[in-house]
Amino acid sequence: MGASTSTELIQIAQIPFALLAITGLDGILWPTQTLLKDDAIYDYIVVGAGSAGCVVARRLAEDGNNSVLVLEAGDDPPITAMIAGVFDLLPGSYVDYNYTSTRDEYAARSQNNYTMITAGKMLGGSDSLNHFIHTRGTEYDYNCWAKMTNDDSWRYENVLPYFKKSERVDDPEILQAYGEYHGINGPMGITRQLENDTVSDLLKAFAEAGNPSVLDLNANVYIGYTQPQYMFADRKRQTPAYTYLKPIKDYSNLHVSKNTRVTKIIFEGKVAVGVEAMYKGKTYRFRAAKEVIVCAGVYNTPQLLMLSGIGHRKHLKSFNIDLIQDLPVGDNLVDQVAVTIVHKLKKYPIPIPAIPSDLTKIPFPILIGSAALNKTKQIPEYQTFNIFLAHDLPYLTIACAQVFGLRNEICDRWQKQVESRDSLYTILTILQPKSRGRVRLASSNPYDDPIITTGFFDKDEDLMNMLKYVKDFISVGETEYFREIGAGVVGLDLEECADKEAGSDEFWICYVLNHASSPYHQTSTCPMGRVVDSQLLVNGVEKLRVVDASVMPRIPRAAPNAAVIMLAEKASDMIKNANQ
After folding, report:
1. What is the pTM of this model?
2. Of 98, 103, 144, 110, which Cα lies nearest the Cα of 520?
3. Taking burial as the number of CB atoms within 10 A of a residue's CB, which of 392, 460, 461, 560 is the most buried?
4. 262: part of which helix (H) or strand (E)?
5. Cα gap 282→543, rounded to integer Å
6. Is the Cβ–Cβ distance between 519 and 429 less than 8 Å?
7. What region holds the Glucose-methanol-choline oxidoreductase C-terminal domain (predicted)?
8. What's the rounded Cα separation, in Å, for the pair 166 and 184?
9. Residue of 69, 23, 79, 70 whose CA lies nearest to 359
10. Phi–psi pair at 114, nearest 5 degrees
11. What would you report as the CA-atom Rg of the chain, rounded to the nearest whole angstrom?
């Protein structure tokens, strides 16, 4: 099956789920649409119901003492957001903002010079359409936050209770070995897949290549390969919308308005007093008695702040936006740029294509690896997500073309060269890149997409490091297991790199630049210390707080979603303590 055909089939498959959402049959899980009244007053207004917004709304509303208005631009999640086996139907669908980066002929060659950027537009946000792998990073990441913000409350030992508060880990082996690092009573179920022979063989191969097998990368060991922990339990994805918002959907003090675009934060002087929003073509104004809390995400939070007069003076002036506070909003965009590598594995007789037998299960084994070039180091430099794809399932082209948006010719080349073979689809990410992108306004119209510049490989150091990481990773091909089954990297016959000597550094640099994409791990467009303080209050104004990945002063050495949930748990306590 070619990549273009796979994409068309995915688009067709999205239709019944969209129709299900339209009928409202899946809406019984979620809060009903609140009756909006212009100039209504609430204690708290939460802008955005992504991971952070769902957590904050739950914690502020659960005691029943505060009225909380949640405004979400998207709608209820489709049923597919709960089903592990069809997570790949969601990117590129109606629940995705479907952003693209500015034109980049250097680092976006794999995607026709535009990087596809997935961002969730529904209750639960991007966590309702991501890969639901639960990774925290290292203690050094959060100790660094504390140092950068001059606030020890961000040290690892002080944020660990908030990681634990969110979790309901159901894994006796992990709890016996590392129970002090995990929670068992939180809203969000965390589990692992059962190990099978293939996983065992792959773990042995990576160990032979110098990468030890470990049980838990979310405890006090940060280097090694393991089966990841998933935000998945009871045969359902554990999105914050499902685990945090759904249980309080009938609370009388929780008010949720969907398909509602917040267009502006309202200020009286330097005090945020409410928001302006559009719902069904009508403009509403809502007032916050205590705080406005922006949880709109790495792209939409800076866009809203800038539309409201908080940002670079010169940039806002170019759109005739009155300045409230001159701050470096939208700078410092970080993403753990990814490169995809595909290995062919064991060969089979010509297979009969199959479909997954149980869509409520995670559809394929995954190994996650955190590694460093110096095998004696304890802090990882790069991370790999290694997806084992059975020879009789069509997931390779779906992952390649639909989830990561690579060009059809790349996906077709890989699919052809792994025909009748199992394959290992690897996404290799730089954990803490030096390059930075930015987010800017396209206009003063809140419905115009922001201008996103990824900045991938803006610093040569990142490109040189990615070269080293790719070469380090593919050394697994020299192990006994990979040699026995005739495994090898496929897709190396690149027309774009034909003038480079095979296996040379020049060739692999060319490969990297032609296979780079976003893993959707973006952070830091409104970071602590520059745009907000260590309490997440926007500098220079009052009663306005930001709670989402944009406030991270540095990206953790992990996919950032677990850190976002931790941050939102911690912020909820900050907010309640400040408004007693």
Report:
1. 0.93
2. 98
3. 560
4. strand 260-268
5. 26
6. yes
7. 433-568
8. 9
9. 79
10. -130, 130
11. 23
Tell me which residue of 275, 326, 269 sits closest to 296, measured CA to CA.
275
> What DSSP character marks residue 283?
E
Strands 254-257 and 224-226: unpaired
Mean pLDDT of 205-220: 96
Please state, in angstroms and rounded to a whole number, the distance separating the CA atoms of residues 16 and 43.
39
Tens-place pLDDT, residues 354-382? 566 677 777 788 999 999 999 889 999 99
pLDDT in tens, 23-77: 444 557 899 999 999 999 999 999 999 999 999 999 999 999 999 999 999 999 9
Q: Where are the beta strands (DSSP E) in 435-487?
A: 438-440, 451-453
Closest CA to 50 of 121, 131, 132: 121
Amino acid at 519: P
Span 79-134, pLDDT tens digits: 888 888 777 778 888 999 999 999 887 777 777 788 889 999 999 999 888 888 99
Distances (CA, A) of 139 to 378, 385, 574: 11, 21, 21
Residue 418 is assigned to a ligand binding site = no
Q: Is 255 a catalytic residue?
A: no
Q: CA-to-CA distance for 558 and 134, rounded, in angstroms? A: 9
Name the burial class of residue 391, with classes exposed (0-12), middle (13-18) and buried (19+) by CB atoms within 10 angstroms of its CB: buried
In this structure, the strands spanning 325-326 and 488-489 are unpaired
